[in-house]
Structure formats: C-alpha cells, structure tokens
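Record format v2
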Amino acid sequence: MALTIISLIKQVPLPSEMRMGDDGLMDRTKAKSIINVDCQFGLEAGLQLKKKYPDARMIVCSMGPQSFETALRTALSMGYDEAYLLSDRKLGGSDTFATGLALATLLKHLGFDKDSKEPFIVFAGRQTSDGDTAHVPSQVAENLGIPQATFVERIEADDNGNVMARRIIEGGYQELQLPIPCLISLTPTGVAPRKPSLSGAIKARNTAVTVLGVDDIHLSTEKIGISGSPTIVANVQNIVSDRPPVMMAEGQGEKELVDSFMAQFDTGGNVLEKKDEKEKKTAETPDFPILDKRGPAKGILTWAEVTNGKIARPSLELLNPSLKLAKELGNDTKITTVLIGKNVKPLAKTLFEHGSDEVILVENDRLEEYLVMPFSDILAQVIRKRNPEIALFAATTAGRELAPRIAVKTGSGVTADCTGLEIGEYVNRKTKEIIRPILHSRRPTYGDSKLATILGFVYPQMSTARPGTFPVPEEQPGRTGEISVFEPELNEKDFAVKIHKTVRGEGGLQSLLDADVIISGGRGATGDGLKLVKELAAALKEKGIRAEWASSRVVVDEGLAEYARQIGQTGRTVRPKVYVAIGIFGAIQHIYGMKESGKIVAVDHNPKASIFHHADFGIVGEYEDIVPELIERVKNGFTFGVEPVGKD
Amino acid sequence: MDNATVYTDVLIVGGGPSGLSFAIRLADSLKEKGLKRRILLIDKGNSIGSHIISGAVIRPDVFGELLPDVPIDQIPFDSKVSSDTMYMLSEKGSLKVPFHPPYMGNKGNYTASLGEVCRFLAKKAEEKGVEIYPGFAMSDILYDERGKVIGAKTIDTGVDHHGNKLENFQEGTRVEAKLTVFAEGTRGSLAKKLIEKFDLQKGKNPQIYSLGCKEVWSVPEGNIVPGEVYHTMGFPAANFGVFGGGFIYGLKDNKVALGLVVGLDYADPTFDTHDAFQIWKTHPFVAKFLKGGRMLEYGAKTLPEGGYYSLPKLYVANALLIGDSAGFLAMPALKGIHLGIRSGMLAAQAALTAFQRNDFSENTLKTYEQSVKQSSIHTELHRTRNFRQGFMKGMIPGVFHFGTQLVTGGAGFFGRLKTHPDSEATKTLAQAKKPLFKEKYKDLEFDKVLTFDKATNVYYTGVAHDDHQVPHLQINDPATYNAVNIQEYGAPCQYYCSAEVYEVHTDKEGNQELRIHFENCLHCKTCDIKEPAGGITWNVPNGGNGPDYKYM
C-alpha cells in the first residue's frame, strides 16, 4: 500500500512583526504571516522522502483560523496534494496539550493512528517561533501512540521500510532507525525548504483546502480551548532589551571599517546590565477563600539525565530551583530524582550531594541509552505511583520531548524552557477563589521579547528549565539520601526505535568558560579552516588577555572544531566580557549560547545576517579582509577594552 | 512533478500597468465575443506591486477606457493635482519658471503610488478570470524547432552559486502558450533576448534610458499639500552636464514622494545618481518639504527615454512587446503609464483578432503595431520624437533643439537625431572632464536624517534575495574586466548602482577585484544598460526576490 506522508504546519507572524493581545494570547490579525520556519523544513523532509516513495500520498494539516489557508496553499504549491485545516472558534486559547490532542484527533479522523492499516509518517517542525515549546510533535505522537524522533536534521528511507533519522543532541548527534508509522520533527538545519514551483502554484489554486470543525472530527470540547487546557497564561510582560541597537562600522575597505569599529568600541557604552525582571504588581489581592487543590499530591520529582556516564550538568542545575521550591513549599517537601540507566547506581551520590533527598533507581541493560518511548513510559509509571505535586526536567533535547510525552499520559500541562520557577498563588476572579500554593513557571517567548508566567492546574505541575540559567547548587560532600529501586513494566513496543550510533563529544575546556574574550567562528569563517579565528585569539593571548576560540555547531559538524568549543543551544552557554562572532549567521540556537556576553562584536559579509540584531558592534565585510586587520590592531595594543591578566 | 509543463492560451510576463491592462482588455473582449481562453499572468515580485515604482503623476483618461464601469474616484490614485510648478535650481537658489514647458502640464492628473494602482488592476483582472501568479521568475523564452516563440520557463530553483543542483532542486515550470506577451517593464530581460534574437531594433535608434531614485517620506502636517506637484531642473545634475531633473509630489496623510531622474548618457564614470539625489535633497528648496519628517521607503528604476525612434518592432509570430519593455514613454513629461496601458489595450485588440482567426502569425499580430501608429501613443511620441536626442550634447543645445522641434512639429532642423547606447557614453577616467563627480563630492557625508548612504537606503526597500542561487548579475568577460572596466573606467558600477551591489575591493598588495552583493539588487537594470562595453548582464534571480515596495 502506498505510503502517506503527512506534514503538520503552523502559520506564524513574521518574527519582526509579532504582537500580542492584552490577554496574553497571540493577536494574529495584524502581522504578515509565513509558514513557521521549522515546519518548512518538515515539509521539505516529506518531499525528500517522496523521492524514495514516488507514489506517496502527500497530506498537509494545520490548526488555526481560516487565514491559515494561505500557509496550506503554499504547502500545496511546494508539492503536497491534499490540505486539511482544523478551524473552530472553540479551539481558541488551546495550549500545547489541547493542540496536540486536537491535531491527533484530526489525524485519527483522516484514518491515521497506531492501528491504521495504511503506512504513514508524520513530519512536523521542531518548534514554532511564536510558541517555542517543541511540545506539540511529541504530544501528537503520544496521542496517536506512535514512535517519534524530535530535533531531527536529516532523514532517509532505507530499503526495509524504515526511516533513518539524524537527531541533534547535546554535543553531537544520534542516528536513529524508526519504523513506519512514526512522527519526526525537524530542526531548521537540514535540507532547506524548496521554493514553490509555478506548476505547483497552479495546482494549488485548483485544490480545495478541506476545513473541518471540532464536531466534524468528533473532538470533545471539554479538552480543548481555554477551558480544556491544563495550563493558562497568567501574566505576560515585555522584556526590555538592555542591549542598545547595534553600531555598524562605516567606511570603505577594512582599514576604515576597523578604524570606525575601534572608535565606536571605545566610546560606545554597550555594557549589558541584567535588570531584574520584576513582575508588575496587579491590583491588591481580594479577600477570597484560599484553596489548596493539591490533594494528596506531594513532593518535587526530577529526572537525572545521564550522558557520557555522568549526570548531565543541566540535571544538576535543575536541583537549584528544586531546592528553592521545596523551601517555599515548606512542610518537609522532598526532592526525588529518578535515575534511569544501566549500572548508574554510583551516580546517586552526586545527586544527593547536590540536593536530592531520594533517588529512584531504575536499572536495566536495555535502558543504557536514552530513548523517549521507554523513558516516558517509566517516568509516567513513577509519577502515577508517587503522585508528586511538581515534576521538573532540564530543557535539553531529551527533556523537551520527554516532558510533553509524559504529560499526555498524566494529563498535565507542561511549561517549556523556563528561566524562572517560584511558588505563588492564582486569584480566580470568576470563581472568587485563590489557589495556593501553585507553581509559577516563567518563560521567555516571542523571540525572548516577552516573559510569560504559566500556571498549571493538573498535578503534577510540569516544567522544563532552560540549561545555563540556574547555577549548579553548591556541592555538599557526604550528604546522602534514600535510594529506592523501581522495577518498571517495560513495553516491547517502546523499543521499536533503534539507536544505530551516538556521537557525543566530551565537555571540558574550562578555559572557554573563564575567557574574557571569545573569538567564535561560523561557517562563514571556514574558508581557511578557522585559521584567522585562531590567530586572532592567539594574538590576544599574546597580549596577556584571557582569550579563547570557539565555534558554531556547523563548524563542529564539519570537524573543524571539537565539541567542547561549540557555543549554542546544544553546545555551551558562555558569558565572556567580549564575544566576537566571525562569519556566524546568528541562528537562534547559537544566540542562545552567547547572548549574555558583555559586548558582542559581529563580523560577517552579509549585512542582513541576523547576528547583527544581537550584536553591539557590527562590521560588514569579508572576514579574510577584516580579521587580519583586527589581528594587526591587537598586535599594536588593541585588546577589546579588556585588561591583561599576565601571560600564562 | 519535475519539468512540469503548463499549457495556456496567453502567457503575460509581468504584472505592471501594461500587462494587467492587456489582461483586462483581452478578458473583456473575449467575453464579449463569447470566447473562453486561459490567460496566465506571471510576475517576479513577491506580490503584485512589490516591484512597481514610479513618480507618479498619472493621466487618468485612459482608465475610463480600460475600465468603463469603474468611476474614476474608485481607482486608488492618491490625490488630484492641485498645483503644478517648475523650478530652476542653482547651487543655492531657486527660480520659479513662469510658464510650463510644452507637453508637461499636469492639470486634471493625479499623484499616485503606481503599486497601489497595479494591485487594484490585478484585483479587477482576477475578477475577470485572469490567473495571476506573483513570485515566479521567467528566465527563458521557449522556442519550437522552427525558432518560433512558444512560451517561457521559470527559473530552476535549489542550486548553489555555481548552478550545481542542491537536494531541493526543482526544474522550472515550462509554460507553453499560443501567445506570449512581454510586459516586463524597462529593459525586460526576456524582451532583451527577444529583441536580439529577432533583430527587432533593426533600423531603429538604440534605446536609451534614465535612472530615477525615489524616496517616500512622512512629514509634519503643513510641509506639503496633497496634490502639489513640483518639478526641478538644474542643480545638481546640470553641474555635470547631466540631463536630469527632480520631482516632489504631495500625497495624502502627510506623505511626500520625491526623486531625481538622470539620463544615463552621461560621460563621467564616477557620476552617482543616488548621491546626486541625496545632494539635491539638501537644496533649501527641497529640504524644506522634508523638515521634521522621516523616510519611509526608497527605490530605484530606469526609464526608457529613446522615444519614437527607439521603438523596436512590436511583434513576432506568437509574441508581442508592450509597455516599458517596448519603450512607450513620452518625453519630456517622463510619462509612460498611460501609454503602457494603452499599448496593452491595443495589443489585446490584436490578440482578440488572433484568437478569432486562430492565427498568431506576424500577419495577424502586425495589426497591433498598425493600431499603435494610428493611436494617441503615436501622436504623443511623434511630436517629441527628437526631444531626448537633442539633449545628448548638453542642456543648451538641447533647449535649442527643443525650440526648433516645437515650431516644426517635432522634426527640428536636422531630421531624425540618432542615439548611442548609454554604455558607450561613459568615458574613461583619463578622458572624462574634470573635476569628476567623486572628486567634487569626495567629502560628501550623509547625516541619516535628511540624507542617507546607499546601505541605509537599501534597508528601506525591503529587498531580499535567496542565498542559494546563481548570482543573477553576470560579468560577461571576466578576462578583460579588471584591466578595462576597473582600471580604465574606474569601475563605474560602484557609482551608478543605487543599491551598493558592486564593490571594488583592494587588498593589501593593491590588487583590485569586483565583488557583487546581488542580495541588494533593486532590479533597476542600470548595470545592464550602463556598464562600459556592455560588460554586465542582468538575469532574473529567483521568483519573489528583489525589493518589496509598499507605496512606490
């Protein structure tokens, strides 16, 4: 039977034109719209797979207002054959949980779930630019009961009816083999989306977009919309950027440009001062009865991710907000950490020494490597047994797919990628009651321009915490706790996805975290194999500056730099006094890892490179011209305003 | 999916005023005759209007003929012309010209954003059943085995800078049509190929062009009244013996459209229209309109100025040339919109006849050229047939010529005056008259309030080009380019280009090379026109690339 390739897409406002309504929900009426970039890569992955399956039926689906038809028509003109839009006022205000459920119900209505006879594969974008959660793909997969792979960069069909997926993980990548049916979410780094063809556009004009409402697909309204969503957006604030607009060097030729840059650098006071993100105090708390809705749910549960035989740093960082929340909750609230793997018992010590009160140990030879299906199943079993009030995960590539998949099993809402977690209350003015205590999860959204506070009303309240945000709690040598062994029920179907290969670089290179100046090279600086980037760092070291060189992920992928030097979401987060980005386009994943730097200097030939939106100083030019000039200036005493610390 | 072919009755390449008018008129007249034919219109802009830029002051009468059911007040012009004056500018002063030069009056005309007008025409055309697809670039004309035009093909996408196929490669769509209409605007890249292949310019003057740079500003209430129209002559173009003038048009909502248009037959290899435009804005007469305001948009385009004697043959079997692609523009008013529309309507008449006879041979299509000759297009172009050429030797001979032409009904005392391609007018650094433009203005600075450098201006065009494609600007002879175009001429492209596409880079050893930043390109075609020895060819980039004009 012919394969069906399904792409899930979302239409989003152009990032530069995003607005939000006063209610904290997206106002999509004003901005110019595009297909979310990650979703475009999902569309292309589907079209690439069609090369292997020329007879494949190509379906594209979306959920949203009628205006989303535009995006579906673009997908049709790229090469899809059928388009379905789930559009209903009752869906307004749905969170990721409700959205995942609605989309899965749409697919089931179209005849696709784990039991369907026709083979199918679902593609999606990793995350959307206006939501940033990365939850929906996992939740659709869980609702359909099919395997998944998220953060996938490339796919290929093998000859045995499987799909090979290259999944990006911290420090490298994994090669996964997935059976069909399955769901795959794409990062915007693989095969670039094709342009619509004229013949496709003509076909799209003559193809009807099928619009369906919730009644058409027999979706119960109890679980969708604002009322059906387990989370709500309680508060949204603007994050005022502390970074003044970029100062671009002016002049003809590298000499003038560098002169101009140095003059700006010396006078420009672009020192980033992190201001407290204070919540505006709303009207005073009314005199409503205070309710504690936790029932028997108690305690904080975390998951300890194991990489390279150690507890991953983000999982230790996670114990920091856990300790704070436990203190705020009082009443002897315990932190329980789930440790899954093969021969991982010795790692429990590290967890106790960083704040865990109890470690639940799940050991099995088949669990040596993380896989979302068995791990989500096990964690859901633990959660059902222990009934914690809060469950926290590090927002790593694993945590961000694991948490939403678990949440579907437990009916919880998940708040993604939080930078702030605290205990507070919720004043419900409709029902005239105050819910307390409740977890306030704060997360930046809309390209880090807003800070939203999300509340969940189903226990456990689940959140993932952004790595690099919370410091690892101070180690307390000798602190111990209780180890409980948990024997999970393993489901054979959860092992349908096979790991063919895991490539994960080593950490280390402390000098990068201590450097005052980091010279970082991207794809645009590889013409000489990063020679000039290294030379600039070396020239600074020569002057007694704590300088180090680093790179973007693509450069690591190309083998020109070791993983330990990779800056970004799947690399390291650095905060040097000066960060010099050379030939780096400025993908959001890279920005994530360096945006807290003191001063950011960008050198790139493309004046439209997005790095310039995140930089304090910009030089537009070929790096082969600009960098030698900078090296010469360094040799003559220019040290980017940093004082030498003496030669090593 | 690959190499798909689409069949249609009519393919129109270009969604400007002439292409849209052709579509509207043909759809109407086919309907009137009870015929059903498929009309496809393709435009390379990401939407209709996004590549449209013009002054503009529009003569409205032709709209009444094109859309008899639409009252004039429903056409989205901006404002009715309320006053119309011409000023002669000197370095610091201004002198109101007490009368209007002939053929330049604007009474009863409207200021407008031509982009808005085109969006309106596109809506009308779609209502009449025309299929309009913006965002696709036609890169090649298709010919049958006997060399006859049978349609055109969109550009292949998903290639790297060298043309190697990437994984998302897609072969362009072939569109085969009984009749193909080239309405690409000024210096159309397919029209150029068509004219060359069929030698359509034979026996005619070479086409000559001007380049206009334009900005739209938002200004404080009271700076200008909607419908006020000012034209300027003299400063700064005249200081360099350059033919050109400025315009300032009052728009509603306290907006101003202003620009400088310069004939590309100048000799100074360092002349820079963008910079001249910025200098012109600093003249007190111009600056006063902008005081306290801010720039909203910038753009640039060329205009075919050769007039009557530069019109190519307008047809070959299965194909027609209309609008600016053919060179329908009336001097000295620099008005081409109404002529473009009329040429579209006349071409549609010929197309109807062709469909009725099912005969698309030259024999049928020549009725288009015949009807042009009997129309008001001919009247307008013929009476100024020697106007522009008269100014090729400078302003003073120009005024003399124009005087003689007025009393002789356009002929002048010398019969037909010839033109030379603009690329031949440029002199080498050694031969050009000193001081050169760049010498005189070597200390030119832009305050980013009233005046802007090119990079800043380019930001206000919304321009974007896909990274993955073959750069659409091609150096025809790389072997001689450095020695001739850079060394002898001083790389005029870095000056005439109003979008900083071309940069001459000098390394530490003093070696020079040309770098092409095609991502800035505004599709004005000046490089294709003006580069010495025709050294640069402008090809279409990917569809949907280029500027994104909003109200130009």
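The mean pLDDT of chain A is 89.
The two ends of chain A are 67 Å apart (CA to CA).
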